[in-house]
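Purpose: get a first structural picture of the assembly so the mutagenesis plan has something to point at.
Setup: two entries, given in the order below. No constraints added.
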Amino acid sequence: MINSEEGIGLAPDRELVRLRELLLGEHPRRIDEIAERLDDPTLRSKEVGAVLPNAILRHGPAMDALPEALEPQVEEALARSIQRDPARIARILSPIIGRAIRRSVRQALAGLAQRVSQTVDHSLTLGGLAMRVEALKTGVPFSEIVLRRSLLYRVEQLFWIHRETGLLLAEAVEHDVATRDPEIVSSMLTVVRDFVRDSMDVGEHDALDAVTVGELRVWVEPGPHAMLAAVIRGHPPESLRGRLSDVLDGLHAQYQTELEGFDGELGPFQGAPRRLARALVSQEEPGRKRMSPVTLALVASAVVLGGILFGRRFVENRAVEQYVRVLDEAPGVEVLETGRRDGRVLIRGLRDPLAVDPIQVAREMDIDPDLLAFRWEPIVSAHPDLVVLR
Amino acid sequence: MVNTNGAWTQAEGRDVVSKKVCLVGSFAVGKTSLVRRTIDDVYDEGYLTTVGVKVDRTEVKIGPRTVNLMLWDLAGEDAFAELRLDYIRGASGLILVADGTRADTIDSAIELKRKINRAFGPLPSVLALNKSDLVASWSISDAHCRILGRSGAWSVVRTSARTGEGVPTLLATLARRMVAP
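Result (structure tokens, whole complex):
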């Protein structure tokens, strides 16, 4: 039936097509093309894909509804991704939320413990009493003053270590600190951490985060790809952990791509030591600041001068004592009292005018007569020598 | 008062690539002595028996590049102690050491390589046939050595921890295998 119709209508159809071409030109073909593009889903998605990013980037008020429309889909996609591989999202978010969580929980607990311990230690000491007075005067809590006075430390070395390989990515060190081969130290630290974790039967994510050797402490901050080991001298406050953690998070954020594809190339990390050095911090004991050289020289001069004056006075006193004894034993002289007045030695007593001349005796004993003042009560002595003289 | 000190040193970065290399092999094949030929010994051997690992460092020049080899000397495997595979994680290369005078240590090296391959996939490797100074008393023939080298799984280098023979070749061969594009 159709065939017969086609057979009959073939010639007029062709003419119609020709006529349409003459009248409408290219348009029918264009319409067919557009219809094909609209009907073919593969072609359509390809075309939409080509313009979509541009459309989103340059969206005007008409696209305001886009975030709202995408929200459920994005949430759904995230939920599925987390269900499938939670570690992936955790790694992505770690530099952002890891900082906040780690800092707040750890600092709150450790800070509290440290405060309690320090406060108890200092409550009944003399120094503690002075700190209480300071707390009353300044309005700063007593525990904080205790903490400030007792925590003195210096971060001497920092190692940024790739977790899986134990390789040293970057290092920062105080200029006056002697170091052993930092690359070996980093690897051995990784070994020891693994060893301790395996030996102690702890959880997969638990690890050695502090080592204390005498005055030195090594604090280790773990991160998703790399860890930060800090060698600290003294007693650091728990808040230092927050600072280390901030630096580590910053390094992760800056070198995220390089860390993910790390294969031993150190070139990309050349800027890391500068960022690392932000954690080379120290806290000095208040009141024990070093004196300036000028102050030191003045104090030294004062001490030397004081020493000289004191020494001279001592020698002088000894000589005067000797002189008074000699005078007192001389016939016709009786010393009743000695003392100092206006920088001179005042000697009071009884003296026969025929007795020895005190000034002459002083000269014989190398004592400056100007240093002496006398107040003699004249007497007539019955000493045989003077009787003979008389 | 918290002070931030600006003092710091730049890690030797430039054109340096660092690689973790594990030394494995049977008990008493001379791994530790082999390493000692190339490095400034920093740590005591005691670490090997207590922790099971001792790390040393050596550098190899490959053209303009410096390859920094962190050599993880893992305690030898024997009838009483198995190799701790955990320590291999993150390694870029392997040095398997066997004793030319004891054929069974070569079998052990082959077995170790298989075990490591299963856990971490194939790693660039070199087999050190140690004690080349005692070649007269070797229990394996030249032909056997050639066959070992043809497997493609590793390069074979004859070494002597006593005379130092072959040690630079061993390290250069491995470094080249690791950094080759």
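Residues 18 and 68 of chain B are 5 Å apart (CA to CA).
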